[in-house]
Amino acid sequence: xxxxxxxxxxxxxxxxxxxxxxxxxxxxxxxxxxxxxxxxxxxxxxxxxxxxxxxxxxxxxxxxxxxxxxxxxxxxxxxxxxxxxxxxxxxxxxxxxxxxxxxxxxxxxxxxxxxxxxxxxxxxxxxxxxxxxxxxxxxxxxxxxxxxxxxxxxxxxxxxxxxxxxxxxxxxxxxxxxxxxxxxxxxxxxxxxxxxxxxxxxxxxx
Length: 206
Prior knowledge:
The protein has helices at about 15, 20-40, 45-60, 65-75, 80-90, 95-105, 110-140, 140-145, 150-155, 160-185, 190-205; strands at about 5, 10. By secondary structure, the protein is mainly α. The model has no long low-confidence stretch (mean pLDDT about 95). It is built from eleven helices and two strands, in the order E-E-H-H-H-H-H-H-H-H-H-H-H. The chain has two domains: about 15-40; about 45-205, Orthogonal Bundle (Farnesyl Diphosphate Synthase). Helices cover about 70% and strands about 0% of the residues.
């Protein structure tokens, strides 16, 4: 939707294969996700499996990624508050990150309390990802990022970096990183991969 020509150092789908094929690929992949979730899952009860399908549907649709993306597009050229920007990205990037984490927790038959705790962690992780993404767009070059650098500023798109400045954005990253690790504390070693994911989100350069 940003019409960028690169993702992960390669031509974007609509550049390589055309817009019509890119739309069809997106539709097919989303259908494949629900096909996969609806298949028999050993050790997962039907009620929990239905909850997982419902979770992904919410995260993908107007109450999640699609709705957040619409808000993100509408915000171009505007000056939203930090809270408004957070609302956009919790429903955009954050929705799919949250659903990914909670789907994994469901596969481990997590309790309702554990799901709530992991949902809080996932919200922090989703915001972390977006803020770091904003900082990288402003600071890194295209070769490092694997996508066009400086695109946000060129499109007059509000970001955490533009609203808070470099120091403010870095401070928020540090706070959210600490909060994310703290939220995972009750899970002990079971949350090792999520601790690693948190650090990867912050320390990455692409």
